[in-house]
Specification:
Layout: H1 4-8, H2 12-28, H3 34-49, H4 54-70, H5 73-83, H6 91-98, H7 102-111, H8 117-126, H9 129-135, H10 143-150, H11 155-162, H12 171-181, H13 185-191, H14 199-206, H15 211-220, H16 229-242, H17 250-261, H18 267-275, H19 279-290, H20 294-301, H21 307-315, H22 320-329, H23 345-357, H24 360-371
Helix pairs in contact: 2-3, 3-5, 5-7, 7-9, 8-10, 9-11, 10-12, 11-13, 12-13, 17-19, 18-19, 21-22, 21-23, 21-24, 22-23
């Protein structure tokens, strides 16, 4: 490696000499003297803090990386701790530490400002759960990174995210964590204390958790002040009964409005709710997704032909597969008799023909007229 530029620098040259000598001492010292390790790490940090040209920085990075590759674990650990708080460290040096053993990588993953969103997502995709948990403790995580962490479905990573007061959980993360919380009170506890958690989530979790978490739900989401446990149980039962109809509760409508305001209402989320049989919540979400009046959406869902549902689907680019699923899964809104809830092939084919025949432009025109 050509280090002429660095050797000629009045600031860098003395540090390079000390670095070389102390590194030799460190290598030779049988007891791996902590003092030598600390001084060696300090010199390397001092070098990185000197104002240099881009060319000099790259050459210096080569020197430091070369030493890091030969260094013992405890030196790499000490260096990672110091470099994790610095913003002027070359990315390749930080990535080298971030891909090291977790004891070395942890401080860098948790706080290095040099790592950007795509670096973090790459690390999430390529590393194991210990690395995810460290990243989950970072401040100011981007929604894309939060979603990537949530989608690992790792319980400890989820707890770390739910306990992180320096981020805002996305709707994707909340949706995943609510399902996970039904089997994990360790996750339910920090999740229920999040400010961004819609009130509707509390009642969804209530029936799955133990006494301690139920008490937390009562404190976090009070309804009309202090209320007895049996009254809350009655209220939950009443709310769950609403899910069997197309009449959404106030909380379901409010949660859908919040998601729409954040532009975070997606058809796959709406379909997931419908597949779980939550018809009230589905109706609320579809109402906000289409910006149609609630009464219009309810009327459309009760049409035996499926024509109105086909119009909505074409106007809002809902696929035929999702349209057919909606038509099938909302059948209980169109009949009270259990035996009539199976849709015949002829009805299904006719609904499919409506979807195929109508164009997006025609569907949009029909909806425009319906809003007047």
């Amino acid at each position: 490696m050509n280090r002429t530029l660095l050797d000629q620098s009045p600031e860098v040259a003395p540090l390079l000499v000390r670095l070389h000598n102390r590194h030799q001492l460190y290598e030779l010292a049988k007891d791996k003297d902590p003092e030598a390790r600390s001084e060696l790490a300090g010199i390397m940090v001092d070098l990185l803090n000197i104002e240099l040209s881009e060319r000099e920085k790259e050459l210096l990075a080569d020197v430091v990386i070369s030493i890091m590759r030969q260094a013992e674990k405890d030196l790499r650990q000490a260096l990672a701790q110091r470099l994790s708080a610095m913003s002027n460290v070359p990315l390749r040096m930080i990535l080298m530490l971030a891909n090291d053993e977790i004891e070395i990588a942890e401080p860098v993953l948790r706080q290095s400002p040099v790592l950007h969103d795509m670096d973090l997502i790459y690390l999430i995709k390529s590393k194991t759960s210990e690395y995810w948990r460290a990243i989950a403790k970072r401040a100011g995580l981007n929604p894309l990174v939060i979603n990537a962490l949530a989608e690992t479905h790792d319980e400890e990573t989820a707890v770390a995210l739910a306990s992180n007061d320096n981020i805002i959980l996305t709707d994707v993360a909340i949706s995943i964590f609510v399902e996970m919380s039904k089997q994990s009170e360790e996750l339910a506890k920090p999740l229920l204390q999040r400010d961004e958690l819609p009130g509707i989530i509390g009642r969804v979790l209530y029936e799955f958790v133990g006494t301690e978490i139920k008490e937390l739900i009562r404190e976090r989401f009070p309804i009309g002040g202090e209320i007895a446990t049996n009254q809350i149980d009655d209220l939950i039962e009443e709310m769950m009964a609403e899910e069997a109809t197309s009449t959404p509760s106030y909380l379901a409508m409010e949660a859908a409005r919040q998601a729409a305001r954040r532009d975070d209402l997606r058809i796959h989320d709406i379909m997931d709710v419908l597949r779980r049989g939550q018809l009230g919540t589905f109706t609320a979400m579809l109402t906000e997704f289409t910006s149609l009046p609630l009464t219009t959406v309810q009327e459309i869902l009760t049409q035996n032909s499926g024509y109105g549902l086909a119009v909505i689907s074409k106007a809002y680019d809902i696929t035929k597969a999702d349209f057919m699923s909606m038509f099938l899964l909302t059948q209980r809104l169109r009949t009270e008799q259990e035996e009539d809830r199976i849709i015949g092939q002829q009805e299904l084919a006719k609904a499919g023909q409506y979807y195929d025949k109508i164009t997006k432009e025609q569907a949009e025109e029909i909806l425009r007229e319906s809003r007047h």
